[in-house]
Amino acid sequence: MARGGGDPRVEEVRLPAPGPGELRVRIRAAGLCHSDLSMVNGTMPAPFPLVLGHEAAGVVAEAGPGATVPVGTQVVLNWAPACRTCWFCRHDEPWLCAANTAPAVPRGVTAEGEPLHVTLGLGAFAEEVVIPQAAAVPVPADLPPAQAALLGCAVLTGSGAVRNTARVAPGQSVAVLGLGGVGLSVITAARAAGATPILAVDVAEAKRDLALAAGATDFLRSDDTLSREVRARTGGLGVDHAFECVGRSATIRAAWRLARRGGAVTVVGMGAKDDLLTLSALDVFHSARTLRSSVYGSSDPDREVPVLARAVADGALDLTPLVSGTIGLDEAPAALRRLARGEGARWVVTF
Ligand code: APR
Ligand code: ZN
């Protein structure tokens, strides 16, 4: 649990019993995402005390009145449950559902009785969560929980950015900046889409092997030589698609420069409110590039998580390289510091 400033701590909390249409889910695995870090360090303002965690899988332990998912079902948590009635949901953009704009919502109390908040309506770094049924996507019981958890954020976000937002076509060239769980998932999906070359970019040399294992054709260091190196591999043009998976204006600008004339830049990373992006107005016109963001992979988790789960079960999607290690809840603060240093792909808390 984060209280603002300093490391998060493990604390006892009290959650309500599941109300109408709600489920109590026993968490089995929860991944550490950069957005958790952004809430701890203030990049993404959030209310405290706050239970972190929004990328998780668990088993339904109790169904509230009217909830229909059977007890014992393995579910992947969805941090953007669609209301199915707002303008965005009715226009096939459930990832922008008007009901999901808050970074955290009140739920339960601390041991001292203070009102508690849970990240993105979930708060998954906990033995249990109480969530609306719409925030639970059933998946097969035999899907390994650590891999199932990643489907709920990094994998869905990365694969959706490639398939739904950018619609990468076979033979197109791709650059991916930032090789955490999200960027590596973009690489995996770009590979599956038949993209080539797939140029993986990071400041951390240690990401090289992870990137190549995920399907990148080249690893490039994010430094002064980057534009030249990318052009050398794309016939002097730049890439068809550049994906920004860091969440900073500097890397959005870098991605912008890597895209070819008429190419597309897809912003997957979530940056800070005061981190302003400056582009030349002439260049925006003349380069004819497209700049757009991909929220939750422009996806409908109810439809796409089961498809990804099946791909994992069939062996078509191998998520084992994404899991750098499983840890206990008490090790999560140290793992968040490792994430901040750019170490590993995904650290997953298991219960
Ligand atoms: N150029 C290239 N890579 C960079 C740079 C840079 N200037 N700065 C940082 N990186 C790399 C880090 O070394 C790290 O490998 O970006 C990667 C970010 O990985 P994670 O911290 O694991 O982040 P992840 O969980 O993948 O999320 C990425 O997507 O959902 C959003 O909020 C999330 O903005 C975050 C982004
Ligand atoms: Zn996330």
TrEMBL record:
<keyword id="KW-0479">Metal-binding</keyword>
<comment type="similarity">
    <text>Belongs to the zinc-containing alcohol dehydrogenase family.</text>
</comment>
<dbReference type="InterPro" id="IPR013149">
    <property type="entry name" value="ADH-like_C"/>
</dbReference>
<dbReference type="InterPro" id="IPR002328">
    <property type="entry name" value="ADH_Zn_CS"/>
</dbReference>
<dbReference type="Pfam" id="PF08240">
    <property type="entry name" value="ADH_N"/>
</dbReference>
<dbReference type="InterPro" id="IPR020843">
    <property type="entry name" value="ER"/>
</dbReference>
<dbReference type="InterPro" id="IPR011032">
    <property type="entry name" value="GroES-like_sf"/>
</dbReference>
<dbReference type="InterPro" id="IPR036291">
    <property type="entry name" value="NAD(P)-bd_dom_sf"/>
</dbReference>
<feature type="domain" description="Enoyl reductase (ER)">
    <location>
        <begin position="5"/>
        <end position="349"/>
    </location>
</feature>
<dbReference type="InterPro" id="IPR013154">
    <property type="entry name" value="ADH-like_N"/>
</dbReference>
<dbReference type="Pfam" id="PF00107">
    <property type="entry name" value="ADH_zinc_N"/>
</dbReference>
<protein>
    <submittedName>
        <fullName>S-(Hydroxymethyl)glutathione dehydrogenase / alcohol dehydrogenase</fullName>
    </submittedName>
</protein>
<keyword id="KW-0560">Oxidoreductase</keyword>
<keyword id="KW-0862">Zinc</keyword>
<dbReference type="GO" id="GO:0016491">
    <property type="term" value="F:oxidoreductase activity"/>
</dbReference>
<dbReference type="GO" id="GO:0008270">
    <property type="term" value="F:zinc ion binding"/>
</dbReference>
